[in-house]
């Protein structure tokens, strides 16, 4: 809990920011709208149709006329900036050097196996949060994220030794904390303190965004005077390494490693990474870990149409060789694209570079101009992030056969991992070829994507990431990737196969199923992601990078008129960080605070969601641990006078409880007989919570339960022909019963010969649906059956009164 002083000071900072915002940005109606979010269309699996969006190859004729902006690079950072400009009506051209769009979000298919290269899981997608709100706007709601296993990360410690230990990290936060405490008995105080530190250090993390928004001179002044440090503990946590904090918390070495295991994902060792970045990573996964439904390429696939709607284009095989400047070299006015040894000059008043900051300032601009950029001093303070080996395995068996889980595994050789990692990377290549890589990160993406088994039946995939040193591969950096010699292949394969061997020791069931091996070296990252030192994350995320002084420089505007930066270097290395880099960039260009607009939208979405159903939208892992807030219960056997005769000695109970369709959507296309263990687990856990509530209300039934049948929303799809588990047809809200709506909900459809009947035509109930049938037949027979029934009713009443005079009479 932050103390009162920090709260008051925090409030003051927010007030100041609001005043500055109103001075800096024009007040306008929000560019975003919840109404642009449409329900996701069915997944497009056809490779030709996908290529039409993702692989539009560059040719000068395809360049639209009258461009408002050019974006160099089609990573999420470039695409988000482009889509936001497009939403403001701008015509934007995105140029990508690779043969397909997406940057780290691209996927590739080989021998029928599909692999994504740079997204394993992302957080903050459970409830209406910033991630979902932003991605919904960027894709008009077409992108879906599905939760992976509630135990989203597993740390395998001393994984090659007999003293191995395994630690689970799970969501929601409360379960994460209790699991950690259970795994480390006696360390409860250290765990509690760690959580407190996470809360404190992340509560003011937004200030690193503020110093980018303010004009540079003002940021510098505020930082120099230490004003932010009076108000917030940002610098306190940003200047301390994660390692130094955890060393203070506990002597238990396994727990220290567990507190900092996310370093392997961030690519920054615990002594280098600031505590607040480590805290931010833990915080990011509090609500669980998610994966893009249909794979990572769904991200560019659904953003590109939004860019095209305003006349823009995303063209690939378009290597930007340089940024063109005006005569005085003070303004960016275009780019030069090189393709098939030809150069093409394209002009636009705004140029955004999503290629990383090092490439932009040292390769795409003349040296003198690059040095003038606001960001240039950062290059001597922060080095590029680390390189790695990436291995993709195609497995010729299904996820189910191989019992693969939708989890990520971080495997470290021992608690002195930093020492081992540094030593490994410093090794000369001959030594490295004979050494065991001391850390591997491993996942089975096929198990995370609910559409995978349908798209690639009988197949599964595994991705392994291991450490590497760029120097081992530097001799071939200037050779085309098809013409590197045998020695390069030998190095790549030897290191790659060591990592595969380790993976097979960890998961022996995959050994005999390996059908395809693709090994990528740091040079592959140069090739596919336009890097220069095999770096996977742009700038290295160390303490220096997250100092306020550095953050103030890592901003979208470059100081060179017309030239802006977007993506992970402007913000943080992650899908969300790079996308927000795009938001910051578009904000600067459009001179509006899009973060504020998104925040407003997020609140509106939250309100709408709460209004439509307060119990909805809890992520599944949270729901599995929550009490359903309402149940409906009845004993039908007691209502039917014939029951005891027909079923002597038996009674029945029916319970209805709330559910969210998203919890079950991953299995919606699987036959009800072939849904997997996870489906059964979810169905049973929620079902048994409801049964437990019923037993508390009617304790006498507890010991007499002889049969349990649990039906999920998917059972309603199956038995009642629904599509989203809905039980009553259309939702019976105010909108539905407005006269305008009711006038439309009628039997005739306007399509000759086609009529509707049932509950949607009338109301959701037995009588309502039957009257729907009466209305329908009336229309078809062109008679007023309701009137006829009314007449009959009156006649029946009369008859009844005649034969059975009421007792009162
Ligand atoms: C192996 C790996 C695993 C990861 N796992 C996760 C994860 O699980 N969760 C998560 O949130 N994040 C993860 N990340 C990080 C995340 O993917 C990135 O931070 C983010 O996608 C970067 O987006 P970006 O737009 O800044 O850059 P990029 O995606 O790198 O895009 C830059 C684009 O610019 C292009 N380009 C460069 N130079 C030129 C040029 N001269 N001309 C034309 N085009 C050019 C490149 O080809 C590239 O397509 C991972 C990254 C990697 C590499």
Automatic annotation (TrEMBL):
Record flagged with keyword NADP: yes
The record's Pfam families line, in alphabetical order, gives: NAD_binding_8
Does the keyword field hold ATP-binding?
no
Highest taxon above the source species: Eukaryota
Per the UniProt record, which residue ranges are transmembrane? 6-25
Keywords (A to Z) from UniProt: FAD, Flavoprotein, Membrane, NAD, NADP, Signal, Transmembrane, Transmembrane helix
Similarity remark: Belongs to the carotenoid/retinoid oxidoreductase family. CrtISO subfamily.
Which protein is depicted? All-trans-retinol 13,14-reductase
